[in-house]
Amino acid sequence: MSEIVDTFIAPPCDEQIEILYQDEHLLLINKPSGLLSLSGKNPLNLDSVHHRLVKIFPGCTLVHRLDFGTSGLMMIARNKAMNAALCQQFSQRSVRKIYSALLCGHLTDNDGMIEAAIAKDAASFPRMTICATHGKPARSHYQVVERTEYVQQDGSVVPVTRVVLTPETGRTHQLRIHCQLLGYPILGCDLYGGLQMSGSATTTRLMLHASELHFVHPVSGEVIHARHASPF
């Protein structure tokens, strides 16, 4: 099998990381859209959340990642022990993650569950694919907030549905591919149909924002309810 080559080069990201909370154990940040979570192998993809933060907080590590185009809440561990404790909460699915998104078109149903296994698509890297045979189980819940219109920077108007998305699992590209399967891709999603609707081609970003993180602080035992409003 031929080696998969990642040819993606991230454009410069001028937006700054916003530190929402910090103590001696962990950080909660707001990641801007258009910034990698972790530096890529290509030297041109050095800029990332980790690359920026490790200069300020030596020894810090990522507990989880957000896609390049996704903005919002990320949890950063400040030492190895904290990383292990937080990763355990993720693996046990005791961390509740909630996202805000704009989907192309107006959904018919007000809420529902998408359940479809996800696998790597070696022929179309970096895309993932729905595959019942080789995929890993994945479940996502959606709840409609409003059916409205989104005005692009060029003045064009597209019909969208604002939704709250709650993934029960944490597969790569899960929300993006599940929304495409639903028939309403996330606006601005280049990999899964979010630029195909009439008027959507000029969308400047992926309309997906990690708006809530709920977890237990491993040291204090406090239940943390982190929230950051969607910028769109």
Automatic annotation (TrEMBL):
<dbReference type="InterPro" id="IPR006145">
    <property type="entry name" value="PsdUridine_synth_RsuA/RluA"/>
</dbReference>
<dbReference type="InterPro" id="IPR020103">
    <property type="entry name" value="PsdUridine_synth_cat_dom_sf"/>
</dbReference>
<dbReference type="GO" id="GO:0000455">
    <property type="term" value="P:enzyme-directed rRNA pseudouridine synthesis"/>
</dbReference>
<dbReference type="GO" id="GO:0009982">
    <property type="term" value="F:pseudouridine synthase activity"/>
</dbReference>
<dbReference type="GO" id="GO:0003723">
    <property type="term" value="F:RNA binding"/>
</dbReference>
<protein>
    <submittedName>
        <fullName>RNA pseudouridine synthase</fullName>
    </submittedName>
</protein>
<dbReference type="Pfam" id="PF00849">
    <property type="entry name" value="PseudoU_synth_2"/>
</dbReference>
<dbReference type="InterPro" id="IPR050188">
    <property type="entry name" value="RluA_PseudoU_synthase"/>
</dbReference>
<dbReference type="GO" id="GO:0140098">
    <property type="term" value="F:catalytic activity, acting on RNA"/>
</dbReference>
<dbReference type="InterPro" id="IPR006224">
    <property type="entry name" value="PsdUridine_synth_RluA-like_CS"/>
</dbReference>
<feature type="domain" description="Pseudouridine synthase RsuA/RluA-like">
    <location>
        <begin position="25"/>
        <end position="180"/>
    </location>
</feature>
